[in-house]
Amino acid sequence: REQNADCVHCVPAVLASFPLCQLTEEDLTQNPLFCKFLATLSHHVDRTGLAVSLKEELEKAERELQTQRLAWLQSESLFRLLQEMIQDHCVRQHHNSTSSEDNKFYETMEQCLLVAQCVRQLDPSSTTGQEQPPLLGLSAKHVLDLMPPEKDVRHMKQRLLAELEIRLKKKCFNILSYYQPDWEDESEGLKNLKLSRLPETLESESKRVEALREKEWERATLLQRQTHYYLSELMGCMQILQSLILDYHLKAQKELDKKKVDYLEAKCQIVIRKIRAEMLQLQLDTYTAEKISAHRKIKEKLDAELKAVRAEKQSAESMLSSFEILGQEFEALVQEYSQLRLEIDNKSWALREFSQHSH
User: What is the largest CA-CA distance in the chain?
Assistant: First the structure.
């Protein structure tokens, strides 16, 4: 009971410590030892499952990488800015006439930049921490001999700071205008003030974006957990529904069959009545009033003939009964009469034929 009570108290903390795991409160409450193990493990790992010591080393490495990345970005930005200045001067020199002082300044700067690039290629140990064999037998000292005169370099450096400041200031104003287009028409002093606050503003917005991403990640994790819980509950409901269907299927089927039989009987009666109505309609369409009157007259005529035939039959039967009273002697006379009648008919036919052929 004590373990279950402790498990109930630490369930929310365990779920929050392991958001990526597909765990539910029911899983943890049913397995208190496993819940206790996860609660102990949460003190040694972070939310992503990474060990605390390894997380510290990773954060340290990320800070060092960020420092080196910032140093590289500064040098790369300065190098590209110098290249851009040289290219702009070449374009101006091609389209317009430039002063000798400007030409000397940019030539000295370009030469110094090329020498610095060559030195970096020949001696990368300052940036990579590794030694490299000399290229074509050259060393950084050989290339440094190609530097412009020290006087020209000094004058170039004095002017370069001002030029870089102007260029960087212009680019910062462009970034400020891109960030807030409404600030483009404001005064230079106000722009400088807002530009000084721009890093803090961008940093705060970056933190806000990271916080929103963190919240979005937490919401996505919560949604995933709730989806998993919802699906598990849905599966349970489906199982219960399936058992109810299996349990009450026969009872419902019996009632359904009875209703189906009643329905078929009613439908059969309706069909029979409909057939009867069609038969009556067919008779009405077949036997009109004129046909019935004609049939009635025909029936009357046939009845009269039938009556006469029956009367004739009755008289013949009465005559036959009177002849039967005379017995066998009358029957012999009848046969003799029939024979004589047949001979008379034959001779009459022969006489007619003879008379016809004799003419």
Answer: 187
